[in-house]
């Protein structure tokens, strides 16, 4: 006589093994180690720092307006340009 098999248990076991196989494939395709992520983050920070260090400063420019533009604030409006 054949052994009795619970089909739900068989189905769930098969789904788990397929999910584990899919997870292993995704780790190979998309996974990066913590050290690799930290290295990329450090490299990006180093590039940004070098770019900021090489940025030219405009002579005679208004430093306050430069800070406002960098921070995203709206520059002050000149009232003399409005038509009455």
Outline the structure in words.
The protein has helices at about 5-30, 35-55, 65-70. By secondary structure, the protein is mainly α. It has a domain at about 10-50. It has three helices and no strands.
Q: Keywords for this structure?
A:
mainly alpha, 84 residues, 0% strand
Head-to-tail CA distance between termini: 102 Å
Let me know the average pLDDT: 82
- Cα-based radius of gyration, to the nearest Å: 30 Å
Q: Strand fraction band?
A: under 5%
Which helices and strands, and how do they pair?
Elements lengths: L6 H24 L3 H21 L8 H9 L13
Pfam families: DUF4169 (PF13770)
InterPro entries: DUF4169 (IPR025227)
Summarize, please:
The protein has 84 residues and is mainly α. It has helices at 7-30, 34-54, 63-71.
